[in-house]
Amino acid sequence: MPWFEVPIEGEGLVQAEQALNRVQIPTLGPGYTTRGDRKSPEGARVPRHMLAVLEAESAEDAEAHVEENLPDGVYDIGPAEPRQSGSA
Question: Which long-range contacts does 39-42 make (Cβ < 8 Å, 24+ apart)?
Fold first, then answer.
């Protein structure tokens, strides 16, 4: 069965990552970056993008499986892309 990378954007990605990991859907990200004073809340940037990586029959099935396992929230999902062999 092929592997797909499904991009996910939105707020609350830490909760989304935890929910997907609980159902054995690995994720890449969300990445955290800072700008300005690292100790200042105003300097922290909230992550808004990550990838879910999973096996599925098709890109549409991958997107649907990710969507049905996300917690409540507003997320933009997809389009799923075939994962390149040799990708980490």
Answer: none
Alpha-helical (H) ranges within 24-79 are: 59-69
Which of 73, 33, 75, 74 minimizes the C-alpha distance to 52? 75
Per residue in 28-51, pLDDT (tens digit) is: 987 654 444 444 455 555 557 899
Strand-pairing partners, residue 3, are: 55
Please tell me the pTM assigned to this model: 0.76
Question: Tokens at residue 39, please?
Answer: 């100790």
Asked whether 51 and 7 are in contact (CB, 8 A), the reply is yes
Distance from C-alpha of 4 to C-alpha of 61, rounded to nearest angstrom: 10
Tokens, residue 33: 């970056």
Residue 46 backbone zone (phi > 0: left; psi -120 to 50: alpha; other: beta): beta
